[in-house]
Each structure stands twice: as C-alpha cells, then as structure tokens.
Amino acid sequence: MRFDASASSPLDAFQRPGSQGAQPAAGWVPPRPAAPPPWRVELLRASAESGANLAASGRGEAVLACGSCHGERGVSEPGGAYPRLAGLSADYVAKQLDDYASGARENEVMSSMAKALSVRERAGLALHFASLPAPEAPGRAGDGEAERRGRELHALGDQALGTPACGNCHAPRGSAGTDAIPGLYGQPAEYVAAQLRAWREGTRRNDEAGVMAAIASRLRDEDLDALGAWYAAEQPKQ
C-alpha cells in the first residue's frame, strides 16, 4: 500500500488493493491555492480586540451580536443547532464567514450578516473566537451502541462503507493547521449531524476538494447521529 500526499482527497490518498478496502488517509491536508485569498491577508491586519467588540455589540439590525446565538464566550447551548466558535482556528472561521458572504455556503441569517461586514471585520471576528478557549465537553461518551459506533468511525472509519477515519483530519481540538478542517470535539450533536446531512444532500458545498460530500454520501443516517453524539460528549485531548 502506498500513501500519496499529493492526492486531492483523503479517499484517494492511498493506493488500495481491492482486498484491503478503505484505509485511513493520515497525513493528508487539503491543497492550498497559489495566492492567498483576501481573508487570509486580512488575518494579518485585523485584531482580536476589534472582533471582540463587534461580537459583543453587533451593528444594529444588520449584524446581530454573535453571542445571541453562539454564546457570550463563543460556546453555544449543548443541545442547540448553533456551533461553538470558541477555540476554532482563525483560518477556519474567517473562511466560513467569507463563504457566507460570497454564497459558497448558504444560510439566510449568516449570509446577510457576513455580507454586511468587511473582509477585515470578518477577520477580526475570526481572530477573536480563535483566542477564546475551547470548552470542556459535558463528559466522555457512553458505551451505548451509538457512542461505540461514533468512536469507531472517528478512530477507524468503516472499511465496508469505504470511509476513512474522521480523526485523521479532524484531530483533537483541531485543524492540522488548515482553514478547511474544524475541530469537532464539544460541538452540539444536532449541529454535527445536520452538517453531515447537508454535505450528503448537497445543500452545503463549500469544500473545494469535495471531500466531505464524498464521505457523507457513504454514511447512513444512524452513522451521522452517532458521530454527532460522540463528538458532543468527548472532551478535547490536551
């Protein structure tokens, strides 16, 4: 078996004999564009302080205070539909805000607010949330069938379904230093499962390499819920 670090997808990163099935693509990172996008340039110019002020106060009716949905310190309600932002990489948050503004990622509320902000203001928000500590999750996942399945998919993937281990890219706390890969530990279960369904159904498409859509399309409904339950209950490793 041979690893190809230049592959465009973790599903293709290994040359796999037919008898081996799916193998985890450890070490794969998404390809980067030759020139940095504007939001990445603005991360060098913006400040977390300006982002903190905007997150706390918003801007009239056009831009709501971020804490009204995502929590005062970037930690949303455990059982809710909104993601936690605290502790996510600045690259990831900035890219998602940029995608909302451009229409690459669709959400009526988020798209409207992102469009009302400048690239630098969005970068400031990203720096602010990246500066906040990621919370401890409610507790370790249990030993029920769903939790065991979520742990298996995270650690090993599923050879029969042809999916790599989620943990190879979504490492503890993080993003392997890329803008494309968020941390999932401590995210609300409903949010994780909903995003996986959006990838599978094609209503979320802001993944240039098409990795998440390809993986989610191979997972069953119970797998999506199991992954949500696992990540919501697991505590990030230090």
Automatic annotation (TrEMBL):
<feature type="binding site" description="covalent">
    <location>
        <position position="166"/>
    </location>
    <ligand>
        <name>heme c 2</name>
    </ligand>
</feature>
<feature type="binding site" description="covalent">
    <location>
        <position position="69"/>
    </location>
    <ligand>
        <name>heme c 1</name>
    </ligand>
</feature>
<feature type="region of interest" description="Disordered">
    <location>
        <begin position="1"/>
        <end position="38"/>
    </location>
</feature>
<keyword id="KW-0813">Transport</keyword>
<feature type="binding site" description="axial binding residue">
    <location>
        <position position="70"/>
    </location>
    <ligand>
        <name>heme c 1</name>
    </ligand>
</feature>
<keyword id="KW-0249">Electron transport</keyword>
<dbReference type="GO" id="GO:0042597">
    <property type="term" value="C:periplasmic space"/>
</dbReference>
<feature type="domain" description="Cytochrome c">
    <location>
        <begin position="152"/>
        <end position="235"/>
    </location>
</feature>
<feature type="domain" description="Cytochrome c">
    <location>
        <begin position="46"/>
        <end position="133"/>
    </location>
</feature>
<keyword id="KW-0574">Periplasm</keyword>
<dbReference type="InterPro" id="IPR036909">
    <property type="entry name" value="Cyt_c-like_dom_sf"/>
</dbReference>
<keyword id="KW-0479">Metal-binding</keyword>
<dbReference type="GO" id="GO:0020037">
    <property type="term" value="F:heme binding"/>
</dbReference>
<protein>
    <recommendedName>
        <fullName>Cytochrome c domain-containing protein</fullName>
    </recommendedName>
</protein>
<dbReference type="InterPro" id="IPR050597">
    <property type="entry name" value="Cytochrome_c_Oxidase_Subunit"/>
</dbReference>
<dbReference type="InterPro" id="IPR009056">
    <property type="entry name" value="Cyt_c-like_dom"/>
</dbReference>
<feature type="binding site" description="axial binding residue">
    <location>
        <position position="212"/>
    </location>
    <ligand>
        <name>heme c 2</name>
    </ligand>
</feature>
<dbReference type="GO" id="GO:0009055">
    <property type="term" value="F:electron transfer activity"/>
</dbReference>
<keyword id="KW-0349">Heme</keyword>
<feature type="binding site" description="covalent">
    <location>
        <position position="66"/>
    </location>
    <ligand>
        <name>heme c 1</name>
    </ligand>
</feature>
<dbReference type="GO" id="GO:0005506">
    <property type="term" value="F:iron ion binding"/>
</dbReference>
<keyword id="KW-0408">Iron</keyword>
<feature type="binding site" description="axial binding residue">
    <location>
        <position position="110"/>
    </location>
    <ligand>
        <name>heme c 1</name>
    </ligand>
</feature>
<feature type="binding site" description="covalent">
    <location>
        <position position="169"/>
    </location>
    <ligand>
        <name>heme c 2</name>
    </ligand>
</feature>
<feature type="binding site" description="axial binding residue">
    <location>
        <position position="170"/>
    </location>
    <ligand>
        <name>heme c 2</name>
    </ligand>
</feature>
<dbReference type="InterPro" id="IPR024167">
    <property type="entry name" value="Cytochrome_c4-like"/>
</dbReference>
